[in-house]
Amino acid sequence: MTDTTMPQRGPSLRWLASSQVGLALVIAVFVLIFWFATAGFGSRFNLYALGRVVAIDVVIGCSMMVVLATGGMNLAVGSIAVSSVMFGGWLMQ
User: Left if phi > 0, otherwise alpha if psi is -120 to 50, otherwise beta: which for 12?
Assistant: First the structure.
């Protein structure tokens, strides 16, 4: 019986096919387009404002992720999220 060796492979590029990488590339392309198309997109004030807006969505997304991870997903989760957004809007008036 003879021993066979597997050919050496280069670095795995499977991670390029993941959906997260594709989404990150799309976001990066849009950021570059807006950065060069408008004068104020890359300003400190605009990046701060975008960070504040995105932070709200990140908090809601993380809480929804916890609900999904614990197996508590039902139809009430969406209605509770909408109710909390409406209540927050009422408080901001």
Answer: beta
The answer to whether 21 and 15 have CB atoms below 8 angstroms apart is: yes
CB atoms under 10 Å from CB of 14, counted, come to: 7
pTM above 0.70, yes or no: no
Rg (CA), the chain: 22
Mean pLDDT of 4-21: 68
Distance CA 2, CA 79 (A): 66
Domain ranges of the chain: 16-92
DSSP state of 39: S
* pLDDT tens, residue by residue, 13-23: 676 677 778 88
